[in-house]
Design a protein that fits this description.
The chain is of the alpha/beta class. It has twelve helices and 20 strands. It has three domains: about 1-100 and about 200-260, 3-Layer(aba) Sandwich (Adenylosuccinate Synthetase, Chain A, domain 1), CATH 3.40.440.10; about 100-195, Adenylosuccinate Synthetase, subunit A, domain 2; about 260-420, Adenylosuccinate Synthetase, Chain A, domain 3. Bound molecules: guanosine-5'-diphosphate.
Length: about 425
């Protein structure tokens, strides 16, 4: 069976925990899109880890982990992550696609310099090089892993590539130029580092599908950050939808039978862009402090996340564009401190109420319409069965389920792997 776990919102919904939990039953865990620009937090018996590029299956001995064709492969980031996991005594099996594109030093520099140049018009990039990486990929000047092993071709390609890049560095950004031979030497070392892991992962996955193996496709970020369906241009530069998992991994689309969209019991977002349900002031600070397992601060950048109420308009849209077959709600325990809990159930735009997720310009001018539900005001982290939750907590979950139109099959009531309530 092929299953995808994806985000229904702006990312950071807690997919890492759910993937880590579901990975137990998987034979293969696959990263199919994105790069090292976002992070999953996983807490298990080995410790607390922020994974950016490694698939979440690395903590399970018998799982094959795949970095597939659709990913932005940042080999520096991969190395440090591998070291962090290995130093906790964890051994894992990782395969890297021979057709995945390599994220390079100039991508990170151009990302950083461009944000500087844009100043107050910046996108709020994590400066991991993702946007310049995808520009190169779709301009067909990027480098796929197999090219690293063709030395003469690689040298020639880099020479031509850096002629153009250096013009931007020098004249647009007024920054030092890059010597392509230094890049070449670095890439050759990187190539040797990854060599034992490189293979035709798409073939591996197609064969695994034929053999009936359990494959878990692990999404990064969420629907509203998708390049085609999200809050453009405040999106990531690649698709974040389950539909793309077939492309990014290289398996038949009709094989993805189960799509779990993960959503948080409240909202959080990083970076710029419209965020209708946003809280400000003390209300925001309180939720930010209590959110997640250590407050709502970015796994990659440490910057404070924007927070708000649950948003049924954004989430219904997010769940629908994912084609979710079920929904997992995380962080319900976080809301236990509230007397009443606000849920954003509509957007008011130019005097009219909308239940549809509008385009970015209209979202910016929309005001949230809140419905208030009663809180449950007791610790729910010790609860082990859904039915044992306080009545008001169940009402909260069921109210949201009705609004978003897809079954909430799992509720997470704490960051640890075992804190999950099935319905
Ligand atoms: P991801 O990128 O979607 O995996 O999300 P992150 O890992 O960046 O953010 C989710 C945060 O919430 C992490 O700090 C998790 O440890 C934490 N978390 C996940 N599920 C729960 C939960 O049910 N309750 C609480 N309190 N924290 C959770």
């Amino acid at each position: 069976m092929v299953r995808a776990i994806v985000g229904a919102n702006w990312g950071d919904e807690g997919k890492g925990k759910i993937t880590d939990m579901c990975a137990e039953k998987a034979d293969i865990v696959v990263r199919f899109q994105g790069g090292a620009n976002a992070g999953h937090t996983i807490i298990n018996e080995h410790g607390r880890f922020a994974l950016h590029l490694l698939p979440s299956g690395v903590f399970h001995k018998n799982i094959t982990n795949v970095i597939a064709n659709g990913v932005a492969l940042d080999i520096n980031a991969l190395k440090s992550e591998m070291e962090a996991v290995k130093s906790a005594g964890v051994e894992f099996n990782l395969k890297i696609s021979d057709r995945v594109q390599v994220l390079m030093e100039h991508h990170v520099l151009l990302d950083t310099y461009e944000e500087e140049r844009l100043a107050d018009k910046k996108f709020g990039s994590t400066k991991s090089g993702i946007a310049p990486f995808f520009s190169d990929k779709y301009s067909k000047v990027g480098i796929q892993v197999w090219e690293l092993y063709n030395e003469e071709m690689l040298k020639e390609k880099l020479k031509g590539m850096y002629e153009k890049i250096n013009i931007s560095l020098k004249y647009l950004y007024n920054k030092p130029e890059i010597d392509y031979m230094q890049v070449y030497e670095k890439l050759r070392k990187d190539a040797e580092f990854i060599r034992p892991m490189v293979t035709d992962t798409a073939k591996l996955l197609r064969n695994a599908v034929k053999e009936g193996k359990n494959i878990l496709l692990e999404g990064q970020l969420g629907s509203l950050k998708d390049i085609d369906h999200g809050i453009y241009p405040y999106v990531t530069s690649s698709p974040t939808l389950a539909g793309y998992a077939a492309v990014g991994a290289g398996i038949p689309p009709y094989e993805i039978k189960n799509i779990i969209a993960v959503t948080k019991a409240y909202s959080s977002a990083v970076g710029e862009g419209p965020f209708v349900c946003e809280y400000f002031g003390d209300e925001a600070e309180e939720l930010r402090k209590r959110g997640g397992d250590k407050g709502e601060y970015g796994a990659k950048t440490g910057r404070p996340r924007r927070v708000g109420s649950f948003d049924t308009v954004a989430t219904r849209y997010g769940v629908e564009v994912q084609g979710a077959t079920e929904v997992c709600m995380t962080c319900l325990d976080v809301l236990s401190y509230l007397d009443t809990i606000k849920v954003c159930t509509g957007y008011e735009y130019e005097g009219k109420v909308y239940k549809d997720f509008l385009t970015t310009d209209k979202l910016y001018k929309s005001k949230p319409i809140f419905t208030e539900l009663e809180g449950w005001k007791e610790d729910i982290t010790k609860v082990t069965k859904y039915d044992d939750l306080p009545q008001k907590a169940k009402e909260y979950v069921e109210f949201i389920e009705k609004e978003i139109g897809v079954k909430i099959s799992m509720v997470s009531n704490g960051p640890e792997r075992e804190k999950i309530l099935y319905r």
